[in-house]
Amino acid sequence: MAIRGPLESNQGDLGSPRGPNGFAPWGPDEDQWHRKAIGHGLQAMILKLHHVAVPVSDLDSAISFYSDVLGFHRIERPDSLAGFGAWLQGYGFQIHLTEDRTFRGKKLTDNPTLPDSRHFCLFVDDIDGFREYLIRRKVTVGEIMEIAVDGHQFFVCDPAGNVIEITDIPL
């Protein structure tokens, strides 16, 4: 199914409710959506995010950032995979780092308030505390922005320049 903009009706493809802008509101009733998806012939359910693949120009510095700063731990990567890389796990999902010495990411100083179209987001329980922690770890961080009622975000970059959004908006 292709991603698209607002829908004509107030119902999504599987009958999920839509807000006035045509998109699903925050926190849809996932159990209700799953029942409707099964009724539309979906046989297998998506359970959760498994991993995010992240290109990096320096594998060692990326491993250090994701493990020492963000708290992921390294896990075994199959020998059968070609190329250089590392797998890390934590918080219920994995990050698969793939070394590409030609990769050039962003510098947060280019625009610290706007996300790159290619980014992933980490949910935290204390956005101010997490930002202060990153600053103490010498990570360049953007300013905290309010993006929804009681919702905030800021952006950081890993050593390769991959953009990471940090938010306190629950799913």
UniProtKB/TrEMBL annotation:
Q: Which domain of life is it from?
A: Bacteria
Q: Which residues form a coiled coil?
A: none
Q: Which residues form the VOC domain?
A: 48-169
> Which Gene3D superfamilies does this chain map to?
2,3-Dihydroxybiphenyl 1,2-Dioxygenase, domain 1 (3.10.180.10)
Is Kinase among this UniProt entry's keywords?
A: no
Pfam families named among the record's database cross-references: Glyoxalase
Disordered: annotated segments = 1-29
One GO MF term: dioxygenase activity
Q: Which UniProt keywords apply?
A: Dioxygenase, Metal-binding, Oxidoreductase
Tagged with keyword Oxidoreductase = yes
The membrane-spanning stretches of this chain are: none
Q: This protein is called what?
A: Catechol 2,3-dioxygenase
Q: Where does this protein come from, organism-wise?
A: Candidatus Kentrum sp. LFY
Lineage start: Bacteria, Pseudomonadati, Pseudomonadota, Gammaproteobacteria, Candidatus Kentrum
